[in-house]
Amino acid sequence: xxxxxxxxxxxxxEDAMMACNHGADALGFVFYxxxxxxxxPEMANSIVKQLPPFVTPVALFVDADSSLIxxxxxxxxxxxIQFHGNESESECRRYDRPYMKALRVQQGDNxxxxxxxxxxxxxxLLDAYKAGVPGGTGEVFDWSLxxxxxxxxxxxAGGLTPxxxxxxINQVAPYAVDVSGGVELSKGIKSEPRVQxxxxxxxxx
Length: 205
Known about the structure:
Domain N-(5'phosphoribosyl) anthranilate isomerase (PRAI): 5-199
EC number: 5.3.1.24
GO molecular function: phosphoribosylanthranilate isomerase activity
Pathway: Amino-acid biosynthesis; L-tryptophan biosynthesis; L-tryptophan from chorismate: step 3/5
CATH topology: TIM Barrel
CATH class: Alpha Beta
Shape: globular
CATH superfamily: Aldolase class I
Pfam families: PRAI
Distance between the termini: 7 Å
């Protein structure tokens, strides 16, 4: 299985190109101003214009105004959207772009029912739940909570690192994995050795 890899929290062109050179399938850009990995729409679109082909830029929003979303994705047709807040299915599909919806998993959730609320999503991103924090917690959740018969491809997130990526893929067999803090030197700045090791671990047999 060739697991796809999204490197999230990209804030500069150098890290973007480095991740692409090591085989990243997608790059995530955070448009949530409370995040230390926030990037402006102008900077992100400048980076996206220079990405090589077959790499998908993903715009991450948390209950954002439609004007902000449109200012980002309207500037380049390559954008996919990741909704990480409490957005309804109708809000997510209004932009006529492929999107994935993030779910913060905790004990007792009916994940099948939550996934089924977003029939227009191309994938569901499963992240760790932490009260008051929409994502980027750096924490692993209990992967055994993930049902085997979900109707959408799964993007696994939450506390993934080069050290645990093989275990995660062996246990969950996700369509893709998403990492940010686990491959950083500091918040928003990536470590090339860790990016390389993570992608190698995700894509090796």
